[in-house]
Amino acid sequence: TQAVYPVKMTVGYDKINVKKGETATVFITIKGLQHFGSSVKLTIENTTPEIVSMKNGNKQVIEITPEQVNGAKEYKLNFTVQGITSGDFFVETDLKIPEDFPDVIER
Length: 107
Fold this sequence. Notes:
Blueprint: E1 8-13, E2 17-18, E3 23-31, E4 40-46, E5 52-54, E6 59-64, H1 66-69, E7 74-83, E8 87-88, E9 91-96
Antiparallel strand pairs: 1-3, 2-8, 3-7, 4-6, 4-9, 5-7
């Protein structure tokens, strides 16, 4: 049998409307990673680059290793965006979980 572990990712903002020069914080919490023995990849993409900029680029792939999770029940990541002009901004996230399935699945 193969164990199944749930993973939950929550994305929040301290505000979604910024003015030019203003900053906002994006909060990401991922629960359930303590069960994985290999890294997961989190992609964060700024889908409104005309409104805000993200430090280190508008699309980032972050590798989260088992050492970073270190057995904790949740992994947290916060980052700041800065307003280029006034308006609502959005980021998209995608979490790639490793598929550690055996080559042959018993039925």
